[in-house]
Amino acid sequence: MTPVSTGEDGADGARVVVPPGERGATRIADRVVAKIASQAAREALGPLPPDAEPPHATVVVHSDDTARVRVHVELGYPGDIGGRCGRVRRQVVERVSVLAGMQVPEVVVQVERLHLAAAPGAARGRTR
Fold first, then answer.
1. C-alpha span between 28 and 31 (Å, rounded)
2. pLDDT tens, 40-85?
3. What is the mean pLDDT of the chain?
4. Kind of pairing, strands 66-77 and 103-116?
5. Which of 28, 55, 68, 114 is deepest in the core (most CB within 10 A)?
6. Maximum Cα–Cα distance for the chain, whole Å?
7. Above pLDDT 90, what percent of the chain?
8. Strands 4-9 and 15-18
9. Which has more confidence, 13 or 68?
10. How far apart are CA 71 and CA 92, in angstroms?
């Protein structure tokens, strides 16, 4: 790695070089990680029922570069709810890890609502 100069000269006229560990740190805001998690959940779920709200997430980022994530989703029913929630968890962990460089030890998937899929040819409303 190349040393970074502060742009200032020391007392003897030489450039002052700041070691990598003392240059500072980049902090990624909770809301940025929440947007990444929301998009990852959308990718994992695929098409949603027509009247479903898109997934949204809340995140708490800790100082040790870990993020705890809660994703709120609406799913079609009937369907494999557990399998879909598992795909959401895996996708959120993978995308947050790659894009934000954070470990994700916990992803809670909260199913807010189930949307009943009408069977083909089924009558709507009351028949009698």
1. 8
2. 999 999 999 989 999 999 999 998 889 999 999 999 999 999 999 9
3. 86
4. parallel
5. 55
6. 96
7. 62
8. antiparallel
9. 68
10. 9
The length of the chain in residues reads: 128
Q: Which pLDDT does position 41 carry in this prediction?
A: 97
Say which residue the tokens 């009558």 belong to: 123
Structure tokens at 53: 């709200």
Which bin fits 61, alpha (ψ -120 to 50), beta or left (φ > 0)? Answer: beta
The amino acid at residue 32 is: V
Assess whether pLDDT exceeds 70 at residue 8.
no
Distance (Å, rounded) from C-alpha 39 to C-alpha 55? 8
SS3 assignment, position 23: coil
The H helix count followed by the E strand count for the chain is 2, 5
Structure tokens at 19: 């070691």
* SS3 assignment for 82-124: HHHHHHHHHHHHHHHHHHHCCEEEEEEEEEEEEEECCCCCCCC
